[in-house]
């Protein structure tokens, strides 16, 4: 079942004005030494559910690819996660483009895929949005605000991290992980920042509208060393209906015993947000960002996980309906192929619930 059709069928559920809740159900750890079609399974930066199967992108610039997988859910538990195929994102023999794969979704036709790359800003390789079709790969045209320069444009490793097919099925929403240079300072432990979420339609493959999103400050880990590496960002988005999204924010601090990851899920409403697509800079501008409500701080469910650990979560998707009729939500973590130390490729399963309306 295609994602936008799935959301259409679930529209009455997500239209409920009662606050949404996410209830943790289960965790599955992908073996660290797993390979499929000769490729190592890891770097899982996004997850997409489509017609009973799952697509997961690998954050690997040397071998850009994505995996097909089957995830068996029974009695609100993950019985098995089976990776079945490894598929290339670019033709390494003919494509000279430098990519850093981050998010992938299936197009409404159920055949084409759309995926994002952060590029490599410090080496002047541009970010990109691609659509891979049976006829070949095409690129979306980015507006000037995403051009790389010293004073403006995206920061390194903080560009197109999130992607969702629009509820209308006519385009996509793409989110930047961090603030553009011209929009202000990056988030730190003292203040947050404004990032942009942009809509591109399939017909023109150009940006048509955009809104600003407030990224929370970094989670302060006072036990960290003064020179600890810290980062935070908007790492995934998922459109639920015409004006609401789920967003995933991840904050990381190095040198922390529990891994240093803090992840939160928000319900975002852009109905009253200002269209910022014509604003070259957000500094000293009057605009209204999207509203947001915290749904889940993953720290509150950490002790329910078998691993007792929240890793580098970066992807989420609505999965199949559960036996009780409620939607499922799955999340996946990017283990960075364990180049920074031991990390987990974990798949988390949640139930999406809304309280019954009062009588």
Secondary structure: elements and pairs:
Layout: H1 3-9, H2 11-14, E1 21-30, E2 35-36, E3 39-40, E4 44-50, E5 53-58, E6 65-74, E7 77-88, E8 101-106, E9 113-117, E10 128-133, E11 136-139, E12 160-165, E13 171-176, E14 193-201, E15 207-215, E16 230-239, E17 244-253, E18 261-269, E19 291-297, E20 313-321, E21 327-333, E22 345-353
Antiparallel strand pairs: 1-22, 2-3, 4-5, 5-6, 6-7, 8-9, 9-10, 10-11, 12-13, 13-14, 14-15, 16-17, 17-18, 18-19, 20-21, 21-22
Pfam family, one: Phytase-like
Protein name: Esterase-like activity of phytase family protein
InterPro entries: Phytase-like_dom
Major β-sheet strand ordering: 1-22-21-20
Percentage beta strand: 35-45%
What CATH calls the topology is Tachylectin-2, Chain A
Rg over CA atoms, rounded to whole Å, is 19 Å
Structural class computed from helices and strand pairing = mainly beta
Mean pLDDT across residues: 94
Helix content: under 10%
One letter per element, helices H and strands E, the order comes to HHEEEEEEEEEEEEEEEEEEEEEE
- The CATH superfamily name is Glycosyl hydrolase domain, family 43
Identify the CATH class.
Mainly Beta
Spans of 5+ residues with little confidence (pLDDT < 50)?
none
Domain Phytase-like: 40-337
Keywords: Signal
Organism: Pseudoalteromonas viridis
Signal peptide: 1-17
Describe the structure.
- It comes from Pseudoalteromonas viridis.
- InterPro entries: Phytase-like_dom.
- Keywords: Signal.
- The protein has two helices and 22 strands.
- The protein has about 350 residues and is mainly β.
- It has one domain: Tachylectin-2, Chain A (5 Propeller), CATH 2.115.10.20.
- The radius of gyration is 19 Å and the shape is globular.
- The mean pLDDT is about 95.
